[in-house]
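Sat 14:20. Reprocessing the chain from the morning session after the first attempt stalled halfway. Input below, unchanged.
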Amino acid sequence: MKLFLRIFLFLILLSCDDVKVDCCVFPDLREEVIINKGIFTVSYNEVYEQPNWIEYSVSNRPKNVDRGNKDFYLESGVKTSDNDDYYKNEWDKGHLAPAATFSDSEDNLNKTFSFINCAMQIDDLNRGEWAQLEQQVRDWSASLGSIRVRIELVFEAGHEVRTTGVHIPTGFWKNLTYPNGEKECYYFPNAPTNKNWDKYIASCN
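Finished this time. C-alpha cells:
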C-alpha cells in the first residue's frame, strides 16, 4: 500500500509543469482573492493571473524614498503573473496603485511592487497617458484632499491569452471619487494611445 501511494504521488509530481508547477502548488485556481495590503485593496483573479480591480486613496503623501531598481515580487499563496509573462514583448509591468503615490516610506513603496498590483499594460499607455493621469491625481489631491481611486480591468470576449497562461486585459477603467462626493471616470483601451489623457474621460457606470 505504501509503495502504491509513493508511485501515485510521484506520477502527480511528474504531471506538473517544470517551470510553474501550477497544478501542484495551486490545484484550485480562484477567480477572486481579496487582499488588503494596507495602502490598497485588490481583488485578484488567479485564473487570469491579473487583478479584477484595485482600490486605494491618493492623499498627497510626501516623497521620502526612491524606487531605485526595484522589481516586482511574487506574493505568497497567490497564483499571479510573473517575469516570464513580460519577457521580450510590448507589455509593461503596469503598476495599478502607483509607486510614486506611495513613496512616503520604504515599506509602502515595496508593497506596490507585488505582482498582485501588476497588470499586463501596453508600454505606450503605461509610460504615457496613464502615468500622466496618475500625476494629475496627485496634483489634485494636494489642493482638494484625499481622492479615492478604483481601477477595474476589462477582459472582453476573445481577449488574448499568452502561451504562459496570462490573460491580456482589453482595457482599464479608472474611477475617481473626490472629497465632495463627485465622481469622474476614465476608460483606456489597452492599446497605444492617440490622444491626451483628458480625452479618455467617460460616463461613470
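Residues 1-24 have pLDDT under 50 and may be disordered.
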